Amino acid sequence: MVNNIFLKNEPPIVPYAFPFIGHTIDYFTNTENFIKKCHKQVIREELSNDMRQYTTRIQDAAKKSIDKYIGDCKTQKCIKLFQQMIQQIVAIPVVSVIVGEDLSNDDELVNTFAHLTQDIASALSLPPFLNFIHPSLHTNFFVFRMKHTNHPYKKHKQVIIDRIIRIIKEREHKKKELGSTWKPPADILQLFINVSTKDGLVDVKKVADCLIDIIFAAMHTTSNAISNVLYEYGGRPEYWKELFEENQKISLEIKDGYLTSKDINNMIKLDSFIRETLKYWNAIGRNVLMYITEIQGTDSKTSPGRFFALHVIKIILYLLIEKYKIVTENGTIVKPVFAGSFLIPNSEGIILENRKM
User: Fold this and answer.
1) How many helices (H) and strands (E) does the chain have?
2) What per-residue confidence (pLDDT) applies to 152?
3) How is the chain split among helix, strand and coil, in percent rounded to 5?
């Protein structure tokens, strides 16, 4: 009770199994399963509830981004830099969920979300050529380059900070104007603002750093997965009929024009196709970890971030399969491309054409 009063922004406490004893018996007799059970309960109660309110918003933003960046394909349209286009498509729903629906129309911010990960990754890919002198030199050089040169990262961060300052001022004004009737917006930015506020002042740089962290993870995971799944889908016509039939079956069950969490969970064949693709399109270095027991690993043991990513992935793939016929440029299976142990974007084109309804 004391914790609930004074630690309002802390993670939720799993309810005690027994008075006074609590979870002591479960913890000491079966620690691994106890932690798994608690993890599952917290994710279900906290994250699942949030995802329900985000689902409609993600769909509206995804439809808008698909129309904007792909549009009408009455005749076949071959897209060469396919992964870059997917990054733009993913950016609008991610902006909508993280900083609010209004800013999903801000092209400069959308471009920052789309390109931030790639620009940081290009800097990280620089070989540690100074390590032969001292290991810390390369790290210091990297930090200096990001902070004090004309690196795109500086521009991206400033764009984010400018928008945060504007949003905070708008929300503080509404809060003062409406008083106790003011309802905080349902977006991730508001969560970061809450935990970064001390004595009535928001640490804007801290909020910006939190947003950059989540953008870096969300954009890379989601856009890579969607493009890889579509490369696999486009070269495997034997799966088209089954996946499209499942898509149509779910479409008939939709109420009010929006997918629900239940509809998304019923995409069993699409879910299986995604998971099998991601096992194949996988960085070689990641395979080393496949034999380690992880409670937040891959597949069914997903962490909250991957849970959100999979939600967005399935919605966007559902919309693309519903609207377009999709095939690889050469009509064959595209193999993953590696640079050393890392998976890199494929240069193979994807051909899109409107489905005849």
Assistant:
1) 14, 7
2) 80
3) 65, 5, 25
